[in-house]
Amino acid sequence: MALIVQKFGGTSVKDRSRIFNVARIVANTRNAGNEVVVVVSAQGDTTDDLIAKAAEITGNPSSREMDMLLATGEQISISLLAMALQEIGVSAVSLTGWQAGFVTDRAYSRARIKRLDTERVESELARNRVVVVAGFQGLNRSDDITTLGRGGSDTSAVALAAALHADRCQIFTDVEGVYTADPRKIPKATRLKEITFDEMLELASLGAQVLNNRSVELAKKYGVELEVLSSINPIPGTIVKEETKVEGMLIKGVAKDDNVAVISILGVPDVPGMSFKVFSLLAQRNINVDIILQSSGDAGKKDLIFTVPLGDAESAMAVLKEHRNRFGGGEITVNKDCAKVSVVGAGMQSHPGVASHMFEALGGQNINIHMISTSEIKISVIIDKADADRAVAAIHDAFIQ
Ligand code: ASP
Ligand code: MG
Q1: Measured from the CB, is residue 41 less than 6 Å from ligand 1?
Q2: Which of 3, 113, 280, 339 has its CA 20 to 30 A from that of 312?
């Protein structure tokens, strides 16, 4: 008997018929002789709707109350799915994140899982029940509800799979797997049979939006092989694992991330310790900095240019402006009309010319590059947001037949 964790995203449980569709998938897995733990997200746009409801009350809700509010979305899904399972004759029980043993740190709205006490889940499994767990939520040490950040149900599923030593972790979604580009935008995009954790991590954090990147980090850390597949179309999806067969596929994907802002600080004194002053301010506020460019010093001054997530741009600007005198008092600007486009592939490590091929594709479309960054398995460019879709199409054409 295998233990299988199955996670279903918001679109997969968005209404009555989708809930019964999920119930049948779970029932089939159960009836094939497996133990099943199910993790679900909030239905459809519920989380966005709840955020909008809060905005009707205040422009500045406390993060504790936001988590209290948002966690209700998943609670609706788990109870409805458990009822649907019972309705079709499957013994099932729903558990909130805290009932399922998720203990997190204090960071409301972006909590990290500290511990997972699986006793309750295991005892329910021992009673032959399908266990339906609310994703995205946990409890901190003050017994307050926390949430794991948008898209956090993937992370809940992987954490459960790791803690329970599950034999398989299936992430059901509204696409049929991981594609070489967003198939809604690039009709020629093809589905990948497999992809490595590292490639997936780059694609997820680059905005491929199939799997939440924290969930992939966790899967890599605990060696949880993931299967990404459709809840609607029962065909094999994409396997995400440590290593994939060398199949001569240089580039696994082209991704676009709209969620970036470029911040420039001009005239920073060109002396040791300045970058620390700037970036420690952002780190203290939990703001992730991605690409960093520093101009070569001129007359004892340099410019620091870097990207942050769009949603953090305002708070980054506020703290930088507040402390501007610590790093030269020069002009600080933000550009929110940009996007990051990247190619990813472990194969490029042993293959020269990928960057020039990418830049050739962009040049051919007359697209200007503002910033470039590279790692062993990816090349990213920051360009104007308006150019981003054309850029993805051109790069995809250049690399993937
Ligand atoms: N419902 C949450 C969200 O929309 C968590 C998730 O979907 O994974 O972000
Ligand atoms: Mg959702």
Answers
A1: yes
A2: 113
